[in-house]
Specification:
This protein is about 80% helix and about 0% strand. Helix 7 runs parallel beside helix 16.
Length: about 450
Amino acid sequence: MKKLIPIAGLILIAVTTVISTLHHFLPDIIPQVLAVFARWTCVAALSYFAFKRNTLTAWILFAIIFGAVFGHDLPGVAVQLKVLSKIFIQLVKTIIAPLIFSTLVVGIAGHSDLKQVGRMGWKSLLYFEIVTTFALFIGLAAINISHAGVGIHLPPADHLEKIETVHQEWDQVLLHVFPENIAKSVAEGAVLQIVVFSVLFGIALAMLPPAKKQPILIFCESLSEVMFKFTNIIMYFAPIGVGAAIAYTVGHVGLSIFQNLAWLLCTLYLALFAFILLVLLPIALLARIPILKFAKAIAEPVSIAFSTTSSEAALPSAMEALEGFGVPRKIIAFVLPTGYSFNLDGTTLYLALASIFVAQAANIHMSISEQLVMMFTLMLTSKGVAGVPRASLVILMGTAASFHLPVEIIFIILGIDELMDMGRTSVNVIGNCLATVVIAKWEGEFNTTRINQSE
């Protein structure tokens, strides 16, 4: 019976959409009262679905539908709800600086044993950086080709939120990367400066003797754990913030916003497919990995990742599959978990695509140099908060604030986040499994006899 609830919900949404569409084109045949009744019946049914599931994703889905219907039927009231979304925005902004600082410092100083690992350590990190850079540029190219965010007419910003575009020369852009005062960088939301400070601090901490390093490292580990819990607390307010943002936007611009979201979703999946075809497949061919056997071996962990939208849920299955494929356990134990922090190909591609979508939606033209600086920022920040719940929201918010982009549109993207998360999480798992096999081949420890025995 529980499995029928999502299906019934989808059918109800489809029927409601058909009735509302018919009313729009045939108002004489489908009266407005029937369309309004259908919409609010759908909202009531979805509230029951959200209550039964009682998960953050279910409540966010309900908030999106509720906000869209509320904004469409009661636009005069909906435009007054912006304060709720702004509260959520400000709460999320408080997470960014301490979270990036603590996770990067722990990631650098807490894993100084990469020196002991030797060749495998630098080979893995080199591979991760090259592949994720390709992912960034494919996402950047895809959104610049599709222009999925173009045509959105955002509500006019008030005088405090107007975006000032200032032309900067290359030396000014480069100078802005480095902090002069970390407190000032935190106050201004300069994410890249926070990242640079955190990286240098982490390197300096790693160079200290254990007796001096350990107290600060323990503090940073505790701070990162606190910020994870802090994020979880704030996310309880997410459905209210997202619903208010959707209602406010629909109240101003109507339901046409969802056309852009559908095009964004198509752009993401086409970009992910292009990344697999143009980057991962050539890597597998160059490494002389049997493609079909590799695909068969990782089919189960990828399907788990797609259905659960969780890379961590697929980790045990991926480790078992790779060992059966011929990768030594010692390589799996190092490369795969490290890849979960440094090699999130699908998430990196999505962040590049979504950040430019925000700029397009705000009708802000960004030059190629400005887009490249944004990509460099994403390349660093995406490494720092890989294990954070709703990490994409935190990173996008920080990037948007750093580049003076309006953050309200990010809540609109959350409307299809679950569907996008399925694709990007699957690509994360595929990319990390391939990276593990490549490193095993590079180290000369790939066991081809295992493949033949598994047939």
